[in-house]
Amino acid sequence: MLWSDPENEPPQELRDMQGKLRRLSVLLALAMVLAMLVIGVR
Q1: Which residues cross the membrane (predicted)?
Q2: What pTM was estimated for this model as a whole?
């Protein structure tokens, strides 16, 4: 990559969506772990 190349920054809405998807995936992973624990206890 050359120093004269423009910055390859994604637009703000794309970054917001990536953040939302990341939070959603973390939430989903936590829900899966909680469901496994509940199923394991029963």
Answers
A1: 21-41
A2: 0.62
